[in-house]
């Protein structure tokens, strides 16, 4: 017993020593830790509100599954879930596949100045707010905009895509891709640049074409990164981007792009039904957790390695 106590004391001293040796790095990490503690971990305790009748004053009254029943029995809940999954899957697939392609294209460009210029231009939309992006896309797609003028050149009747229920989901997906393709490609480009150059030299000596190098060297090397990104994205399967949806919504297309987050915002927060909105948020979190576990299991079986 005395020996085990000595070992634990040594481990504690060793941990304290490592923290002191790398104190600058830990201080840099501190804001991130505080963010997750305050806005993620502490918020978990507030999830209990889903099981209580909220009272601004006094003690909350236990309500059981009352608000979950209200969420699931809502006549529009099924349509809202379908809209959420449809928009979220479109955003996730577009922003998972095309950044990989864009990263490979950047790697294949020989001109360093041109490659850097493309990178800078592609990164810029990521730093724009959705309000600004909506203004850009609305100006291009509305009547009298750029796309309308192109249609007029070919004598084709134009319909405003921002007011069309059949096209608004595609507009949301493409605007998301336009905003994120450059920024999301950074991690894939970093994975490509980490590949040993001797593999490229050996493939070139053996007479491999660029397509064969991409297929047999680059893609297998970035598969673990792609799997990790997919697993992380699966956790937000019911997160269709409330900030984007709110600015793109209008009376003509609201029923088509009404998602769970905007529904919670309208019914739960604006109308002051906080218990209802918490129940819907807890349901969303549980579904996200299930998808993360399922995606991780599937990734482990397909790739033969764990994406930790």
Specify the CATH architecture of the largest domain: Orthogonal Bundle
The named CATH superfamily of the largest domain: MetI-like
| Major beta sheet summary | 2 strands, antiparallel
Using the CA coordinates, give the radius of gyration. 25 Å
Strand residue percentage? under 5%
CATH level 3 topology of the largest domain: MetI-like fold
Cα shape: globular
- Count the domains: 2
> What helical percentage do the residues reach?
over 70%
Q: List segments where confidence is low: pLDDT < 50 over at least 5 consecutive residues.
A: none
Rounded mean pLDDT is 84
Strand ordering within the main sheet: 1-2
Number of distinct beta strands: 2
CATH class placement of the largest domain: Mainly Alpha
**Gap between N and C termini, in Å?**
35 Å
Taken in chain order, the helices and strands follow as HHEEHHHHHHHHHHHH
Provide a count of the helices. Answer: 14
Structure class? mainly alpha
Describe the structure.
The protein has two domains: 2-64, no CATH class; 67-305, MetI-like fold, CATH 1.10.3720.10. It contains 14 helices and two strands. The chain has helices at residues 2-21, 23-46, 66-73, 77-108, 112-123, 130-141, 146-153, 168-193, 197-205, 210-234, 242-248, 254-257, 260-270, 274-303; strands spanning 52-53, 61-62. Strands 1-2 form a two-stranded antiparallel ribbon. Helix 5 packs across helix 8 (168-193). It is globular, with a radius of gyration of 25 Å. The mean pLDDT is 84.
């Amino acid at each position: 017993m005395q020996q085990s106590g000595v070992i634990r004391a040594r481990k504690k001293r060793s941990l304290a020593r490592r923290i002191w040796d790398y104190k600058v790095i830990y201080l840099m990490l501190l804001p991130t830790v505080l963010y997750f503690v305050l806005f993620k971990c502490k918020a978990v305790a507030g999830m209990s509100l889903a099981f209580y009748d909220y009272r601004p004053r006094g003690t909350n009254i236990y309500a059981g599954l009352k608000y979950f029943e209200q969420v699931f029995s809502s006549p529009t809940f099924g349509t809202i879930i379908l809209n959420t999954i449809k928009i979220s899957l479109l955003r996730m697939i577009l922003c998972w596949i095309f950044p990989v392609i864009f990263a490979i294209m950047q790697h294949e460009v020989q001109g360093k100045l041109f490659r850097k210029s493309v990178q800078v231009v592609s990164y810029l939309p990521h730093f724009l707010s959705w309000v600004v992006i909506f203004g850009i896309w609305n100006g291009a797609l509305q009547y009298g905009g750029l796309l309308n003028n192109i249609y007029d050149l070919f004598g084709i009747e134009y319909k405003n895509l921002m007011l069309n229920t059949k096209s608004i989901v595609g507009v949301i997906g493409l605007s998301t891709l336009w905003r994120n393709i450059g920024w999301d490609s950074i991690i894939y480009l970093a994975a490509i640049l980490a590949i040993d150059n001797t593999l490229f030299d050996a493939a070139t000596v053996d007479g491999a074409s660029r397509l064969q190098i991409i297929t047999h060297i680059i893609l297998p090397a970035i598969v673990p990164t792609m799997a990790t990104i997919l697993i992380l994205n699966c956790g937000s399967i019911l997160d269709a981007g409330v900030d984007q949806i709110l600015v793109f919504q209008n009376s003509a297309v609201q029923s088509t792009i009404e998602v769970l987050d905007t529904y919670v915002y309208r019914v739960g927060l604006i109308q002051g039904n906080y218990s209802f909105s918490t129940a819907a948020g807890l349901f969303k979190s549980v579904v996200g957790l299930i998808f993360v576990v399922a995606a991780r299991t599937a990734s482990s079986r397909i790739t033969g390695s764990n994406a930790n």
